Amino acid sequence: MEGVVDAVMRDLLTGIGGYDRCVTEFIRVSQTVLPARVFYRRCPELSAGGKTPSGIPVYIQLLGSHPDLLARNAQVAYRLGAPGIDLNFGCPAKTVNKSQGGASLLKNPPLIYEICSAVRSALPRTVPLTAKIRLGFEDDQAFEAVVAAVVNAGVDELTVHARTRRQGYRPPAHWQRLADVSRHIGIPMIANGELWSPSDVIRCASVSGCHHFMLARGALCRPDLGLATRALLTNTSHDSMLWEHVHPFLQAFLERNALRYEAHHALNPLKQWLVYLAHYFPQAAALFAQVKRIRQFDDMLAALR
Predict the structure, then answer these.
(1) Cα torsion for 183, 185, 186, 187, to the nearest 10°?
(2) Is residue 169 part of a domain?
């Protein structure tokens, strides 16, 4: 969720509740061991024990194709206080894939094994190592081989976005493909893809056989999705958030990001979030139409108020 699920958004969403863990936007590893400031910039929670203000752990996500470099950067993240490391083998972006990152590695299960094995060996066994994949690159023929590579390398949990890179984000997500391996891989499999509502999660559980779920775009569309999903899974009550509950978060998101970046750079993440919110709240679509051409921070703040 590059560009919008930053530390401020993680704080807002985990403050609402329902989540057990967060993962940072990816940190690209290509040529060197990165300095500490890069990790702090992506994950300022490192200064607070690697947790959001609500106490939810935040894993550092690394993306790259060089086993030794990824392992050494994972060690840096661990020493800085990361409670866990996540490896990105699912990013579908063309610029990432052209440089042998993200989903492009799904074409090479042996390299995925080398990466996971190197990172696992570089960390204390008590430090969780997780990975995220897709069903494949062009197709899902190598799905089982990729899963085996990850599991055999000692990864603790595996998240699967139930589409190939070619399928991108086009519905449907092929949850049934997860069922082929979820019940016997020996580690938890976390389902991802087309989880927009608590009922979607229930259906995904039934189809995929998974008991753990990653909420991404759905969480941006509906900020209380984690809490509402947990309520349904545990048969407890939950009053859905209304627009008047969500609206104050917009101003907080804008103002707090303005403290982290130059003020005008805080506008685009806000606009991105409004586009997501519009899928669930028609008021967000109307607000986006009003503010989409605003270029100045003070004008945006006045519009939100």
Answers:
(1) -100
(2) yes
